[in-house]
Amino acid sequence: MARVNYLFTSESVSEGHPDKVCDRISDAVVDLYLAADPFARVACETLVTTNHIVLAGEVRGPESVTREAIEAAARRAVREIGYEQEGFHWDLASFENHLHEQSADIAMGVDADAEKDKDEGAGDQGIMFGYACRETDALMPAPIFYSHRILHEMAKARHAGRTPELGPDAKSQVTLVYENGMPVRADSVVVSTQHDEKATTEQVEAIVRSVVDEVLPKGWIDGRTKFYVNPTGRFVIGGPDGDAGLTGRKIIVDTYGGAAPHGGGAFSGKDPTKVDRSAAYASRYLAKNVVAAGLADKCTLQLSYAIGVSQPLSVYADLHGTGQIAEDKLENALREVMDLSPRGIREHLGLSRPIYERTAAYGHFGRTPENDGGFSWERVDLADQIRGALN
């Protein structure tokens, strides 16, 4: 029997964390290519360290996406995060671009071929997971949801000029008390944030405490809640100057904070033919619609793919004992209501658009769907169709 009374912890990192700087640059490159050609192929990895930005990977797209345009997109992303520091500066950092043409062998397996009646295949083998639960209105696990919100609100205040004492690099960690399977209060909150050399510990603590008080639900903070703000006492040197960053090293932050499985593949830097990204979005979309349809209080879905093969090899559902229907019946219904081929996912969710740079920080899930198609996988417009397919 599943435990119902326990503590659970998730962490988040800000847009200025070195790994998230890399995720954003990589996704800026994805958006650059997709804006020029919705059928472009991109697999872009980024490394940052003290005043260095390095790109590597494979691309296939129009010649209009020049090396100069790629460099400009990378520097713009760093500037918008807020790095104009001596150790990492958007304009002064050196830049290396080692992107090259996509392998012809991969292209042959992935591309559709009308003459051979071959649909577009998956860009790689792999397993992808989606998850949804009733812990928050966004149908996300509460610890990761609120860890993200704390940092997102801090970043908004910094960008608005209200907290000039703070720098771009930050981390949060929220531990919640669960009773009868639902979160009821905060046991501890940890926030480490880069700050100006002149800022005092008291100033930083006051800023952080005010954000946490605003973000967490009323009544979750009480006399037993433990706060840890900059536990080392000082965080002036941060970002890529303090620690090297790489694309794809924060996949648990990107997803469900450890509350659900993860297939292991990163999202950022990949175009939507890569099922690491698109099928993970589809899995979340379906899981969220299952819960929104009232068919379960909690839903985990797994999809699996083989490179060059169109349809998933398996669809697995786990309703964690909260379901109103049998899991095997649900698995069949999900295949019926949505084409889970890479092409089907991309077309259903409108993924062949430049909508990815905004996903690079504060989570790919639990966000609000946007008018231009951003975060389309957070819609709950499939709930009625799923219910209908089960009748």
Total beta strand runs: 11
The backbone outline, from C-alpha atoms, is: flat
**Sheet with the most strands, sense and barrel status:** 4 strands, mixed
Q: If helices are DSSP runs of H or I spanning 4 or more residues, what is the number of helices? A: 11
Structural class estimated from helices and strands: alpha+beta
Which strands sit side by side, in order, in the main sheet?
1-6-7-8
Percent of residues in beta strands?
Answer: 15-25%
Oligomer: single chain
Helix content estimate? 25-40%
Distance between the termini: 30 Å
| Rounded average pLDDT | 95
> Roughly how many Å is the radius of gyration?
21 Å
Low-confidence parts: 113-117
Q: SSE order, as H and E?
A: EHEEHEHEHEEHEHEHHEEHHH
SSE map:
Blueprint: E1 6-13, H1 18-36, E2 41-49, E3 52-60, H2 67-81, E4 94-101, H3 104-110, E5 126-133, H4 142-159, E6 166-179, E7 182-195, H5 201-215, E8 226-229, H6 239-242, E9 245-246, H7 251-254, H8 275-292, E10 298-305, E11 314-318, H9 327-337, H10 342-349, H11 383-389
Parallel strand pairs: 3-4, 7-8
Antiparallel strand pairs: 1-6, 2-3, 2-9, 5-10, 6-7, 10-11
Structural overview:
It is a single chain. The chain is an alpha+beta fold and 391 residues long. It has eleven helices and eleven strands. A four-stranded mixed sheet has the order 1-6-7-8. Strands 4-3-2-9 form a four-stranded mixed sheet. It has a three-stranded antiparallel sheet with strand order 5-10-11. A hairpin with an 8-residue loop joins strand 10 (298-305) and strand 11. Helix 1 packs across helix 2, helix 4 crosses helix 5 and helix 8 (275-292) packs across helix 10 (342-349). The protein is flat and about 65 Å long. The protein starts with 5 loop residues before the first strand and ends with a helix. 49% of the residues are buried. Mean pLDDT is 95; it is low at 113-117.
